[in-house]
């Protein structure tokens, strides 16, 4: 599964926060780079995938 995140650290360490998640604002093309611990990166990535994959209601 490719999720745009770095590989899983060998063991969970809350101090291990070098995961970069890049969000791009489509209106302003501003890049927002989040530095997250692995668990937070997974939570955000899963939420984004859910929103992208949900069928839009018209």
Automatic annotation (TrEMBL):
Q: What is this protein called?
A: Uncharacterized protein
């Amino acid at each position: 599964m490719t999720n745009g995140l770095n590989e899983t650290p060998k063991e969970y360490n809350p101090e291990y926060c070098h995961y970069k998640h890049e969000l791009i604002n489509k209106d302003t093309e501003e890049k927002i780079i989040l530095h997250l611990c692995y668990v937070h990166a997974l939570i955000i990535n899963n939420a984004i995938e859910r929103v992208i994959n949900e069928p839009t209601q018209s």
